[in-house]
Amino acid sequence: MKFYIDFEATQASEIISIGCVTETGATFRSLVKPQFSFISPYISQLTHITNEMLKNENTLDFVFNQMYDWAVNLCPSILDWEFLAYGTDEDFVKASLSNIHTEHSMILAAMMIAKMQNGAKEAKHFFHGTISLIHAFNHVENVKREQRHDPLEDAIMFQKVYEYMQENEPLEEHPLHNGPVDYRSPSGKFYCKARGKNAKECEFETCEEAITWLINNVMRPKEPEKVHRDRIMTNIMKAVRGKSMYCGYKW
Length: 251
What we know:
Helices cover 42% and strands 16% of the residues. The chain has helices at residues 41-47, 51-54, 60-74, 90-95, 103-115, 119-126, 133-141, 151-167, 207-219, 229-242, and strands at 2-9, 15-22, 27-31, 82-85, 116-118, 190-194, 201-204, 245-246, 249-250. Strands 3-2-1-4-5 form a 5-stranded mixed sheet. It has a 4-stranded antiparallel sheet with strand order 7-6-9-8.
């Protein structure tokens, strides 16, 4: 059985919310109380989840136990479980392993890490280039929805995109190449710093400023007007959440 799954996490990659939908339409969702990190203002703005909201929620160990029972009830043979996510969501499970102690939650975590499929890779081939989940979904459903970073909503969107990709031939041209892309850039200041002795630090009032700076000063493409700003924004957000490098800078 296929389980389409999505997580929201702190900037330390500790899981704070889970959404999952099966190929038959059964759903599971839960908030999770983090054990060793807190929700930053940026994550709170992105997910609409606050530290106060999670104060009385269950730990990941308890929630994974619940999810294991839910999954076993739907598909008793755990070897038939398939986990699919739009990205490397197993990294969130790995980052949260210290919060998992009981047998069933450990089994579920191990299955996710071992069997998680990255649907974004298949989407890159199907859509003829990298594409965010919300833009893939909007193309598939012919709508203009904004992503709210609700894990169950995202999991359901991914299920629709994945099933569409299984039923249709890959596109001959990227759906976003023919016109401007509408997206909502996150608010708040952004900072980046390059490594090395002469590390350069930059501060931007908005994500839009950061994107423009990257295009003009780091990427320097031959045709700047054809660069997909939403893709750069997504990569900046991934770098912020994962505390990783993007374009040679820590964000």
